[in-house]
Structure formats: C-alpha cells, structure tokens
Amino acid sequence: MTRINFVITKRRDPSGILLLRRDRQKSGFRPSVGMTTLFTFLLILFCSSAGAAQTTVIRPAEIDDILVNPGMGIETFNRFSGQQLNEGVTWSEVGPETALPDAAPATIDFPASSVAYLRWFWSQLEPQPGKYRWEIIDTALAEGHRHHQRLAIRLMPYDNKHPLPDWYIHSGARRANKPSDKDGEIWSPDSDDPLYVKSWSAIVSEMGKRYDGHPDLDHVDISTVGYWGEGWGPYLPEWSVQQQLIDLYFRVFPRTLLLMNFDELPALVYGTKKGAGWRLDCWGDMGRPSRNFAHMLDLYPQQIARGKLQDVWRTAPVSLETCGVPESWKQWGFSLKPILDQALRWHASTINIKSSHIPPEWQPAFHEFQKQIGYRFVLKKLEYPTHVSRGSMAQVNMWWFNAGVAPVYREYLLALEIGAAVIPLETDIRQWLPGDSVYENTVPVPWDLKPGKYRLRVALLDLSTRAPAVQLAIAGLQSDGWYALGDISVD
Description:
Elements: E1 4-12, E2 18-26, H1 33-52, E3 55-58, E4 73-77, E5 115-121, H2 122-125, H3 134-146, E6 150-156, H4 166-169, H5 194-211, E7 217-222, H6 239-252, E8 257-261, H7 265-273, E9 277-283, H8 295-307, E10 318-322, H9 326-332, H10 336-345, E11 350-352, H11 363-370, E12 377-385, E13 387-388, E14 393-402, E15 412-418, E16 421-424, E17 435-444, E18 452-462, E19 483-490
Parallel strand pairs: 4-5, 4-11, 5-6, 6-7, 7-8, 8-9, 9-10, 10-11, 13-19
Antiparallel strand pairs: 1-2, 3-12, 12-14, 14-17, 15-16, 15-18, 18-19
Helix pairs in contact: 5-6
C-alpha cells in the first residue's frame, strides 16, 4: 500500500497576499476518505484564519496648514474674530460691555483665533455694592460662541487711568497713598484692609459661582491687588493676605484653567505649585529706547530659573502678551526671530498681540510660528485588522506625534468610527507632550453593526457634545470634522 504525505507550502503573490498550496508525496500509505475530508476541513480553517488575521496599515499624509484649535494660538483682545483691529500702536484695556459690530471681511488681516481675551475693571462689573452686571460677561460668552472662540478673562481692581468703584472709595476703606504723593491722583487701596479682602473676594466668588466650568470659558487670570490686579506695586499686602486672595481662585474655579501673573516671584511660585499656569505681559521687550532694562534679557528667563518653573508647561498653560504690539517692536528696532524663538522655548500656548496689525514683512514668520505654538497632533501610523467580527475585540495600534511645543490642557476623547458606531479609546491625550506617543489596545467591535465594508475614521471629540473639536495635521478631513483613514470589513 502506498502512503501519501501532504505538505503545505506557503508563498505570497506579487501583491503580498498569502497563498497556501497542498502537495502530495508518495510514501506507501493511502489515506482513507475520512482522513482526506478531515484534512480538507483543517486546511480551509487554516486559510480562513490566515485571511482574518490580515492587518491594514495606514500612514496618513501630514499637512502644513495653520490649525485653529481650542486653547491655543493668537488671541483677539477685548474683541472677537472678524472685528475691527486697533490702529497703530494703541489699544484699550477696557473690556466691551455690549456686542461689537463685525468688520467687513476684506478689511481684517489678522490670524484666525480660537481664544478671545477680555479684561474688565471692577467698576464696570460692580457699579454698586452687590449689584453685579453679569450681562456684560454673558454677552461676551455669547459673542465668543458666535465667533467660535472661548473666552479668557480677567477682573481688574483698577489702574492708573481707571479708578476703583466709587462706592468702595467712599465706603470707609483705608487708602494706601495720599493725594500729595507722586501717584496721588489715583486712589490706591490698602489691600491689607479687611474691607478690601471682603469686597474683592465677594465679586470673585460670585463670578466663580456663575462661570466656573462654563463650556465657552477657556481660562481665568488670577487677579488680586495692584494695578490691573497683577499682584505687584508699592502697596502690596502681607503675604498671608496675598495667599488668601490667590487661594480663593482655586476654591471658586476648580474646573477652570487658571493663570498666575509673572511679576512677583513668591506669588508666581505659590500659584503654579497649586496647579496654575503662568502668563507675562511684556513679551518681546528687548530693550526699549532710553531704558536700561529689558524684560526678555534682564528678568523673564532668570525669573523662570529662580522659581524653578521650567516644567510648569507640562501640566498648565503658558500665555504671553506683547510689550506694546508687533508694530512697536519694529519701531524700536527689535529683531523678530529671538522673540519668537523664546516663546517656543517657554512652550507657549496662547499669544495676545492686542488685536493689532502684524507688519507685512513679518507675517510669513508669524505664520510659521503659529504652526509651532500650542499642540499639533499628527497621526503617523495606524494598524488595525482588515476584517473584524461583530462583538469581537480588535487590536488597534496608533503612533501619534505632537509637533507643537505644548500639550493640550483640556480633556478630549480620542475615538474611532465604523459606520455610525463611535468607539471611544481609553487614553488621556493631555499626556501627549511634544514628541511621540502610542496607543496600543484592543477595542470592542459593536454588535449592532451590519456586515459589510466601512470607512474607518478618527477624531478628537468634545466630551460634552461628542462632536469633533480638534483639527489634526493630516489629510483626510471631512465636512463633519472626522478624518477618513481606510476601509474595514465587518462580518
């Protein structure tokens, strides 16, 4: 009797598809019909398993566009996208109290913006004790929503042109300076006075009750004492009072990103250790004429080193405001590149240039700068099974690259979509620092999918609306905000 051995030979055709061939070798034994049937069944099962294990690899094309994403980029100041810019080198510190008109699109030459930064004086929001004009902020939030911007806000006690509320000045509160002093034209409060702490804390607390966690609020400046509430000046309170005023923000805005002003080192260190980011307001000062001092050369970098603030950006945002405006830098004879480079070294996310014009010859440099500040997510590679079964678990591997200088600080949901089924992926994208990140996990294939071929899509979704909220630096963007990647078959 002749025995026949069957040998399985594997090879791939020119397109890479795995082919299996069964060859017979005589050896003196003849198999029974049952054995042949069993072998054929096993061969079919093996071939089916090999096909089911096929993997699709997608490498999306990277794009070089400027991306307008939440919580990053160049801000508008005391106005919204598409509204008239400031002329020359002037601006106003007074936040708008009503909706402002939009300008004709052809007249606006300003970067697209996702954040509107607004500041209001205490006298604007509380003209009478305990009578708050919240309609001012409500209108601003509505305007921000209409212009696809979130608000960054600050409440300011006073400055050298805008006094404290008249009712406070005449309330019996203590004054820190005298009318005969050099700065006597402005009534400066004694911020050690319990009445100042009580009155200021009251409006901040009410603001927190009303707006903490608002979906159209991006961040809030921690504002305490002194001009513009920046916490510096000749009339600072005892440190315990300053601590109390800082702590208040963390109590009443627990769900909102907070930024600490830069000027006073003890307050800056204290606030950032509690979880705040930081901001400074003389970015770009390389030494103005007739001044023997430059913020960029004599204070800011050294202050960061003294306070050991180099890594704050990893968990909280850095925001910069121009000293003057870009046109001022040009008039002062500053070189642009060192200014932009320093912002990148500081891992800045938002930039306030006071809604002013960028000099035409500097616009290309600002365009490249906009591609680097904040976060910029590139999906470099996606691997997934070509065929999946309903109710099964599918292995998904992603390689992401953050080409920006900072992470994203709000939580978003990374998701895949197969047909109408949205599959959330368990990862915290706030951990995606500049550089490479990977997602490697199994994901459930929904039972209710009908068999067929689908387009696999990816998006970063807003947690509350479940709508795509972040643009990616890859091709494939579709009209609904999802990114098309490749095909997947469901059985």
